[in-house]
Design brief:
The structure is a single chain. A 5-stranded antiparallel beta sheet has the order 1-2-5-4-3, with helices on one face. The protein is elongated, with a radius of gyration of 15 Å. Helices cover 12% and strands 42% of the residues. The protein is mainly β.
Amino acid sequence: MAPKKIILDYDEEADVLYFTFGEPQEALTEEMGNIGVRVDPVTNEIVGLTVIDFLSGFKKRHQPLQIRV
């Protein structure tokens, strides 16, 4: 079986990162903190992820990179 393509989409205004595995499709979402796991209700396969407060959450956990030359 060929690997599924992964589609990434970032909504800057809402600060939400969407991952879609394969073609977009109807799914149920299970929330786990700031991550929504999208599941196909028929196959129970994970078909996507939604990360809320993606960039602001990342910045809280990581210091900015500093490159010295």
